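Below is how a single chain appears once it has passed through the pipeline. First comes the sequence as given, then the structure the pipeline wrote out for it. We keep one example in the README because the format questions we get most often are answered faster by looking than by reading.
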Amino acid sequence: MEVLAASAIAVCCLALAIHPTLRPGAVDAPVTAAAPVTTAVAVNPAKARPRIEVVFVLDTTGSMSGLLEGAKQKIWAIANRLASGEPRPELRVGLVAYRDLEDEYVTRRFDFSADMDAVYAELLAYEAGGGGDTPEHVGRGLDEALNNMQWSGGQDTLRLVFLVGDAPPHDDYQDASTATLANLAGQRGIIINTVQCGVADDTETAWRRIAAAAGGEFTRIAQDGGVVTVATPFDERLAQLNGELAATVLSWGSADAKRAAQVKYGNRMSMSTSNAAEAASYSAKAARMNDEDLLGTLDEGKALADIPHDQLPEVLQGLSAAAQQQHIDDMRGKRSRVNEAIRAVSAERDAYLRDNERKAGADGGFDGKVTDTLRRQAAAIGVVY
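Resulting structure:
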């Protein structure tokens, strides 16, 4: 897991557990063409794996309900496919929801995270609403992605934006135009890929122009996202293992962090069978759980003795130091066995999907288009699928 500022993690977890409108970036702010230089997160080149950073900039107006539901069902599948690259890349995902002036919000931002449970929880909070005059504030969404996300530096990082929507931009507003923002992305080495939902000609024209200026690809999908779920004979077993894996998380930290972890656990246990299969497979490949997981924190070098007593998982608080360590070792052993089982079943499931997804037309939907584009573009940082 990359190193993130502790204060940012705490705020993110609190927002996920309480209410989506309290997240950082939820307050709209005007933008100008003279945007500040993107903040870069330092990467230690001696230890870094290739990194893929993806921001999904999503139109969340009323006409996008089908796409949003499809994205909720397929975000784990996209992450799982990306985790299959060699060498295995670090994956950080961010989200920007956008609508238009006078709607409930203009933009809502969720900064990069390697915690896919947190990304999933954020996405679950998105609902379609508002809109109505056809053009939307696409420029504000792109501005959030380019200027307010914590992009990493380094040559081994692939920086991508996927702009997904069905309506053209309101470039008549007194903000930075989408043409200006697309050119800015190209200057910063951030690729903008555009995904058009539906067949509106004016949207296609704008989407093609933005992608071309920012070195990206244009693609079109059905208005509802075109998502196709292929059931496999391995889904039930992986869903069961997903529950067993989630049960190995020992949540530590503040009360807010522990509540956020409980929300994530609840999401895992209420997933559809296919989504649970993808989540289990991704987690085993990535060898990490959520940000509040004590085992992951200890793996990163934090000493158990340095954690305040009231921030320990409740199950450890009444135990001696020796008993605490024994419980941690037991959980670590259980997780290792569960991950080994997941990887074995996932290999069979992946082979089944390779043979059947294309036949079912899954490659034409939101997840199929995004995954294909990401796989091609990952070659730039030496990641092969």
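The two ends are 22 Å apart (CA to CA).

See the next section for the split statistics.
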